Amino acid sequence: MVAIARLLLNDNQLLLIDEPTKGLAPLLVAEVADVLARAAEEVTILLVEQNLTVVQRMAHDAVVVDQGRVAWTGSAAGLLADADRTRELLGVASSGGAHAVGERASPPETERPVGMRATSASEEQV
């Protein structure tokens, strides 16, 4: 949390964040996701995350990387709504429904990293 707070002190145009919720307790996952969601309102975030609940909450676009190669790109909501595609690309089943962060004791994690881009409010207006 301190590292994220330090990042937000600067006038960044892009934040690159790699698995900020890995190994955290579910309550802390929810807190980190809250902070990142607020940050995404101000700055574009490129996030590598295996917690699909966090991805579902924040992502506009998703890129699935498998063995160093792009395996799929598109809408994060579209990917997570398609249980068969999610299973095929990520090795896990998605429920296809919305779940709040912290709602499950152990949110689904993918076997492959999912890169996502959360668009800031100012970028969406351009």
From TrEMBL:
Coiled-coil intervals: none
Region spans: Disordered: 94-126
Domain of life of the organism encoding this protein: Bacteria
Keywords assigned by UniProt, alphabetized: Amino-acid transport, Transport
Gene3D superfamilies (alphabetical): P-loop containing nucleotide triphosphate hydrolases
InterPro entries (UniProt xref): BCAA_Transport_ATP-bd_LivF, P-loop_NTPase
Annotated family: Belongs to the ABC transporter superfamily.
Descriptive protein name: Uncharacterized protein
Organism name: Blastococcus brunescens
Source taxonomy: Bacteria, Bacillati, Actinomycetota, Actinomycetes, Geodermatophilales
